[in-house]
């Protein structure tokens, strides 16, 4: 039997494995619930800023036999905070969120502070990644996607308008953010991450449309991905994009990543047809995980596997009230195949 790290690496390399991995990367696709916090005796918001608590809480989901990996951090505000956004770290039941934008327009990119991956909460993430490593368990580091990071630095409506009205200024901003994200991703891999997951919910083709998705999102993601691969060719790379993707399937083949993670609205069989050379990840409904029964989750998991999923995972970030019983049902179903 393969260990969890070897299994995930083989799937990302399109090699044969004994069973599909069942993972939750962290970051936007957070796996921490209030029940898990109570079990671990570690709670938000302290775990967002304390190295030891972050590492132990990330490992708690693996220890509780929910997932085959350790992933951190637990939100997608780390980079935005480092670049000047005001962030509320939330509470035991509320994730960190941006409460103040540092920019008024895309033309103000030069006003952003320099990004130091070793400082602030970014530095906490790096040290927690190193502390969380275990023999045979994959550790997944996370990056906020470039469009979502931009939407945390400037009001999203203004950002989307600028993509059409000020395309060169918007591209300069995204290029700057991609370089910062690349620097953070490289440091995560240096700290011990086996895989990097990039989640960009604001970069979906459902919001941007196929033309802007092709012009801005694909090049931005590939700018990061190729920089990571150049320096760490053995590292795995997962990209998560939310929303309906039917009209963007032909564009996704150009993404330089090993796996694409979809949410529950995507028809996985159609994705499998259009993306034969990508590992597919997902797409068990997070609404069902929070509100459904273990039997319902088992049925959804089997459906995902029949549709061609290579990696079973929640379709998005799990709600804080999600019970561990339904989360475990997902992995238990995979183990039973």
Question: What does this protein structure show overall?
Answer:
- Helices cover 47% and strands 12% of the residues.
- The longest helix has 27 residues, at 205-231.
- The mean pLDDT is 96.
- It has helices at residues 4-12, 34-40, 51-63, 78-82, 120-132, 146-150, 156-165, 167-191, 205-231, 249-252, 268-274, 286-291, 294-306, 324-336, and strands spanning 70-72, 86-88, 97-100, 139-144, 195-199, 236-240, 259-261, 279-284, 311-314.
- It has 14 helices and 9 strands.
State the gist of this model.
By secondary structure, the protein is an alpha/beta fold.
Assembly state of the chains shown: single chain
Largest beta-sheet details: 7 strands, parallel
Mean pLDDT: 96
In CATH, the architecture is Alpha-Beta Barrel
Low-confidence stretches: none
Query: What is the number of helices?
Result: 14
Task: Please bin the fraction of helical residues.
Answer: 40-55%
Distance between the termini: 14 Å
- Tell me the domain tally: 1
User: How many extended strands?
Assistant: 9
Strand content: 5-15%
CATH classification class? Alpha Beta
Order of helices and strands: HHHEHEEHEHHHEHEHEHEHHEH
Shape: globular
SSE map:
Elements (H helix, E strand, L loop, with lengths): L3 H9 L21 H7 L10 H13 L6 E3 L5 H5 L3 E3 L8 E4 L19 H13 L6 E6 L1 H5 L5 H10 L1 H25 L3 E5 L5 H27 L4 E5 L8 H4 L6 E3 L6 H7 L4 E6 L1 H6 L2 H13 L4 E4 L9 H13 L1
Parallel strand pairs: 1-4, 4-5, 5-6, 6-7, 7-8, 8-9
Antiparallel strand pairs: 2-3
Helix pairs in contact: 2-3, 3-5, 5-8, 7-8, 8-9, 13-14
